[in-house]
Each structure stands twice: as C-alpha cells, then as structure tokens.
Write a structure and sequence with these properties.
five-stranded mixed sheet, about 300 residues, about 15% strand, alpha+beta, five-stranded antiparallel sheet
C-alpha cells in the first residue's frame, strides 16, 4: 500500500473511525436502494473514496477500461480491462488515486435484496462469496452480455412506474445468475451439502453478530440447534472449531481498526464488544502472537 492510505487514516474521526457511506438517493427517481451509473472516461474525484471507508451496500464495478489500484480490506487489486470488481456491505475499501473510468457502477442495498421477489438472489454465489473473491475476469463475450443487460437496467432505472421494480428484478436476476456461473468457474467448488450450508449460515451469523455475541452457544440458539451439533458440523466441514471462526472474525476486524483508525486500544476493545481492554489485549496476543500495540506499530511501518 502506498502512503496515501496510511496518511489518510489520521484524518478519520475517532468517534466514527471508518466512515460508512449509504447509497445516496437518486433525485430523479427517488430510489435509495438501487443505482446504476455509466461512465465514458469520466474522472470522478471523490476525496472520501481516497480514505479508508465502508459502503452500506453491494457494489459491482464493470471495468471496460481503467487503470489504478484499490484495496478491499487488506488485499490490493490492480484494475484490469474487461473485469468485474465486487464488494459486500461494510468491507473496508480505499482507492489510491482517481483515474479516468470507462464502465458501469451497479449498486444495491440489503433492503433491496430482502424484498420477497429478490430473496433468492441472496443465495447466489456472487452474493454469498464463499471464496472471499473480489475480481472476475470477463471475456469479450461476457462483457458484451453484461453491457447489454446493464443498458436495459439503466433504461428501466430511469423509467419510474409500477412495473419498474419487476423489470429491474428480472434483469438483475439474469445478470447475477450469469455472473454467479462465472464465479463458480473461476472459484470452483461443488454444490454445498446440508452441513456445508450450515457452516455457511454460521459464518453469515458471525459476520452479522460478532460484535455482540462471543459464544458459540449464542449462535446455536439463533440457528435453533444445539451448541454441540453446531460445533461438530463446523469442525467437520472446516477443520476448525466453531469458536475459531468467531475469533478469526474478531481478529480481522481488530486488525482493520488498528491499521485504518486512530482508536485507542480501550475504544477499539469496546467497539468489538469487550468490556475489559486488558482482556482484549490478552485475546489478541493469544490469537496472533503479538499485542495490538505491536501489531499497529508493525503494520504501519510496512505501509509507510
């Protein structure tokens, strides 16, 4: 990472250390749950994108042509032509520079996917993203297919009426299904079994509740199964205890905050649901081998 992201974190406010940007309402359509923007070489300079931030929505960026580098959490992506870059809500993102962009941004919220006619979309591989991938390489045929659908989506998005949502859902279903097929080809894996689906559901619940719930039994209660059964299935399917998945998620969030924010260790511990900063310090050292303060010093030196 270049100095940009490192220096920028000092501009963040400790009360809201990593800003979260909602999907802005479209003034023409009044829609604040779905958006599409097409660009032909525009240089969109938004300073807030050049500092670490989160988005409260899904984002699919179809790149026809663009150069530059962006980060998803702590992974860098050098943007390629004819590629799709995609992220889920609340991951930490940062761009290193604003560059001319040819392509299309497609964004939608969890609320949009929660609507009854869209519920099945939440189960698609591209949305579930079990491999934690954020880049799909597209052939010329793939890009042509996507661009045709994006054009139709853009027309419908700018045409309010009683049929608009049904049409958007229909086109989006085709697009996300097509991209999910590409996802399974580029991140191969078999159709999940019932136990694999339970593992996926558990991980999703951890993602949703890791700040509030720190015990496997609490997640078992949410899933209406016994803690023993949940632990047994998770261990068999992943090779790691259920509690380990929860601890890894807490450590990942702690590392994000240590790198990107000026939060004190006490504030950071409280943010992650620890009532005692000293306990959080022991927890982090047990899981990583170093203290939070040592990690912060080391990681910032690496990124200078």
């Amino acid at each position: 990472m270049k100095k940009l992201a490192f220096q920028a974190m000092y501009t963040l406010n400790s009360k809201q250390p990593v800003p979260v940007y909602p999907l802005e309402q479209n003034n023409a359509t009044g829609n604040n749950s779905f958006s599409i923007v097409h660009s032909e070489g525009a240089l969109v300079y938004e300073e807030n994108l050049l500092i670490p931030h989160r988005k409260a929505h899904y984002m699919l960026v179809f790149v026809k042509h663009n150069r530059g580098r962006h980060w998803v959490d702590m992974t860098a992506y050098e943007r390629k032509d004819n590629a799709l870059y995609f992220t889920a809500p609340h991951q930490i993102l940062v761009k290193e520079a604003a560059t001319p962009f040819w392509g299309t941004y497609l964004t939608f919220t969890n609320e949009f996917l929660a609507l009854q006619q869209n519920a099945a979309l939440r189960e698609l591989p591209l949305i579930q993203n079990p491999h934690n991938g954020h880049e799909l390489l597209l052939t010329a045929a793939d890009m042509s297919f996507a661009e045709e659908l994006l054009t139709r989506i853009e027309v419908e998005h700018n045409r309010p009426g009683e049929w608009q949502h049904r049409m958007l859902t229909a086109y989006l279903t085709v697009l996300l299904t097509y991209l999910s097929r590409l996802y399974t080809e580029q991140f191969p894996g078999n159709e999940p079994s019932a136990d694999q689906r339970l593992l996926r559901t558990y991980r999703a619940k951890v993602e949703e509740c890791f700040r509030e719930l720190h015990e496997v039994g609490a997640y078992a209660a949410l899933l209406h199964i016994s803690a023993g059964h949940l632990s047994e299935v998770v261990k068999a399917q992943s090779g790691r205890p259920a509690i380990k998945h929860l601890h890894e998620r807490l450590v990942l969030e702690a590392k994000r905050l240590l790198l990107y924010t000026p939060l004190s260790l006490k504030e950071l511990a409280f943010d992650l649901g620890f009532s005692d900063a000293s306990y959080f310090n022991r927890f982090f050292k047990r899981e990583t081998g170093i203290t939070p303060a040592e990690f912060r010093t080391t990681i910032r030196k690496m990124y200078q």
